[in-house]
Amino acid sequence: MNDKKIDCLILTGMHQSGISPLVQCLTLMGVDFGQNRLNKNADDAVESTAIGDVTMVHDILLRDLGCRWDMVGALPEDWLDTKAAAHAKKRIVHLIEDQFQNNGLWAVADPRLCRLLPLWKPVLQEKGLNPGIILTIRHPWEVAQSLNKNSGMDFKQSHLLWLAMNKEVFDFCQQYAYIVNTFDQMLADPAAILRDIGEQFGLTFSNPLQQQIHHILDVVRPEFKHHNRRGGTQSDSNGKSYSSFGFMIKLTVTGLPQNYWLRNLPRMPMSTGLLKMQCRQGYTRIHFPVSMKTWL
Strand 234-235 vs strand 177-182: parallel, antiparallel, or unpaired? Predict the structure, then answer.
């Protein structure tokens, strides 16, 4: 874990992975999310997406690059050197100076950050800011169900997008201090997640957990979750089933060459043991919560 003082938090994860419960909890703990607010029109209240100036900056950038949030393929080559990226960086600098300057611990949250974190890196460096990244992961079957209901996305596209976004964010996270948690763990024990964030990042929240726990338990409840994978096999819309989740995690964290994981998807081994060994040897900072191990 990075020993430098954490100046800000970056919350991200695949779309419909459950970032919003953590946004709500950290807001109660005194973390400043600026103009971000929660979209209450989402399928599940706990799956609602944090929207606001940060998301607007990202959407404008994707539009100017000729891309979309649900695009599975890679961003354009050298996209960081484009005029669109330069304009986006200026907007990020203005956002930080306007909303977060000298306001204590602050945070941004957006699923698009999985792919757009490289845009933030030079801005944070110029500002002398050291971020702590919090990645929330949800089972891809549940994500696919939610995206299908909310956006009409087919299951194959949602699974490939899940892989692409998690692969990119895991690659980027190696440069900073970060924590991985799951949607199920957040719903089951939000207090444990918040304590872990504080301890791992060396943070002291302005609103102590013991004073906010009742409010936290009011806004984060397991029954708010509408799509549940309860073991066994799950089927996609074409009737094809899968029973192992380990190979999907393996593809995101084993450091394969760029795009190799996508080109060779049908031929990749599904060894859970190999996954755990490679995680221990190559990515010692990755912490898979207990609830996530049941997927492997």
Answer: unpaired
